[in-house]
Structures are given as structure tokens and as C-alpha cells.
Amino acid sequence: MKPTPNDRLSNRTMAFVLAGGRGSRLKELTDNRAKPAVYFGGKTRIVDFALSNALNSGIRKMAIATQYKAHSLIRHCQRGWGFLRAERNEYLDILPASQRMDEEKWYLGTADAVAQNIDIIDSYDVEYIVVLAGDHIYKMDYEIMLQQHVNTDADVTIGCLTVPRMEATAFGVMHCDETDRITDFLEKPADPPGIPGDPDNALASMGIYVFKWSFLRELLINDMADDNSSHDFGHDIVPYVVKNGKAQAHRFLDSCVQSGLETEPYWRDVGTIDAFWQANIDLTKFTPPLDLYDNSWPIWTYAESVPPAKFIHNEEKRRGAAVSSMVSGGCIISGSEISESLLFTGVHSHSFSSLHQVVALPYVDVGREAKLSKCVIDRGVQIPDGLVVGQDPVEDAKWFRVTDSGVVLITKKMIAARAAAGE
Fold it and tell me: Start and end of every Nucleotidyl transferase domain (predicted)?
């Protein structure tokens, strides 16, 4: 028998989303916005996935801690998540680093970001807290993880990915016994421990933690008083619980949300230009690895009021057309050929231009006869008439950022520098 809403643990839980990081590996894409505020999938932002998972899991009390260049993120949350109502005991509190505990201290680490807001969390009157990273793409039912946390009587439950063992060197890795109790937590080990009974794979941390709030509250107070601590969950809080309490691994496979179209659990860290480009382009495939059309688990976001996409001109070599692509509202494809590309809101592409494997963020304008391939174009960029990108890596690298795999990043400043040089 399914639990009633009042029985669900999510009804007694808050989600605390850590969204203060820059995401420096995304280079110029995070010059003006934090990584969780980076666009993804045609109309959403990265942070929408953690928030939507919480909402769809039944969690109606949420907070989001911001720090680095937070205006874009705060504005998005205000516009897209303002439907939560306090009179229904629903909240999304935005918690910028505001020197609340000390006039000289910002958020010193992930644990400190929670610790500096203890009084606010207390006011939620919750029993459990789910601490989430705000910069990953995935669909997950946190209620299942909460149930495991209670059933195993754990002090902390950590969300874990199953990854090939030698690929786990880039993660925090769980060393577990046969019951998935964590016996050791290793940060980016050179020789990761395998899973009992599955030695070729390892359990890597997703940066998702479940605690009973009273237990975590005491840990955070003690951690704040420790001058030798880095005030971080992965470096300080979790290793302490593993050593002195009961830490349990929760496998993503047990709670990932799949519509039936996904062939395997989907989780992506789109923290590099290459990974960001690939994950967006993957969505244009005939059967994408992530189903954004699943109405049973919607990804909530701010939806701009724009007209439908429009395709115009129907002449030889001047035909507005898109194949194997995602084209958002407000786009005008004017005598332009689009293939295997993802266009965000309000993109305009003009006559005789072509876009192949292009991720164009909102309100990009592509000039006539431009030929673009394998590139990411930042918001609001105006591509000059006749610009060719993706055919000559040496020429591209003179003006734009080119990754090792050949993906080209184009921003307003890069276009301006090229124009100033007379190109």
C-alpha cells in the first residue's frame, strides 16, 4: 500500500541546494553566471533538475545557497519558482552569502553554507534534510533514498553512481561492505575500491546527502568551531560520520526516474565545454538518453511568453528547415538549414546560413550565409554575415575558444574582439 502524503518522509524534509560554485571548467560560459544558472536542454537551467527532483519527490520546503555571480540564478528562481506558496507550507528560500555569521566570512565551504543558515533551517521545522549539488543533470526520486535512510537507521546516506572502477579516480569513492554500509570514504583515489561482488565497478559520490536534521545540526556547530576544518561535506563532515557513525550508500539505480525510453540511468556533470555540448546534442537523437518529454516527472523552469517557432522561405538553397533538432519557442528559421542542433528561446537564423551540431543559447542571431558546426554560442551573440566556424580549427582558435575535441565556444566578447581586429 502506498503511503499517504502525510506518511511520506518527503513531507517532513527540506532540500538544501548548494549552488554557489562558478564552474570554472565551463570557461567563458560562467563569466557572468554561476554554473547552476547555465542554460540546458532548450529552455531550462541546470539547477532546475535538482529543484524539480525535490518537488516531484514531494519535498515542498527548499532552500538554495548562492555565492558566485548569483544575479542570473536568483532572478531565474524568482521568476520560475515563484509558484510555491507559504500558506501551503511551501518555500523556496534563496540564501546568498551575506556574512550572516561573521562580517568577514562568506561561505567557506559546502558545510559552512548550511551551517550559516541553521536558524533559517530551524524555522522550517523539518525532521530530515537532503543536501544537493545544484549543478548536475539527472532525474531521481529522493523519497526512495529517504526511506532507505530511515530503514537502515543511518546517520548519513550518500547518493552513489555505479561507474567503471578506474573511471572513479575523479570522484569521491565509497568503500562498502556487503550491506552497502560505507567503511571508508576516499577522495579521488588512484586505485578505487571495487563493489563487493562487482569488483570491476565502484560507487562514486553524487554529492547528495540525507541526514536527520538534529544530527547534522550538531555536527555543523562542532565543525564551525574547528579551525582546522575546511568546512566541506566531502572533506570533513562525511569522513567524520564514516569513522564515528553509520554511513550508508544509496545506489542511484534504485531511485533514478526513467520513463521507459531511457535505456540506462542518466546522470551527467556538464562541467566542461565538451560535456555541455555533448549532453545538449544528445537530446536531438532519435531516442535521446534523457527523456525531457516525460510528463510524469516534469522539469519545472521559467517559461518565457514567446510565440511558437517559425520556419519561412521555401526556395532551393533558401529553405527554412530543421532535421534531428530541437527548436524552442520564439525562434525564426528564415531560409536557414538546421541539423542535429539545439536552439534555445528566440534564436534567429537568416537566409542561406547553416547550423550543424550547434548549441545556440537564447536570443542568438545568426547572420546570412554563416556556416556553423560543432559549436556552443553564448546568449545574445550576433553572428556576423558569412562567418564560418568549425571547418578550420587554426582559424577558429584565433578568435574563439576551441576545445581538444574541436568544440568551439563563441561569446559576445570574442565576436567584438574579432570585429575590432577588422575581421
Answer: 15-284
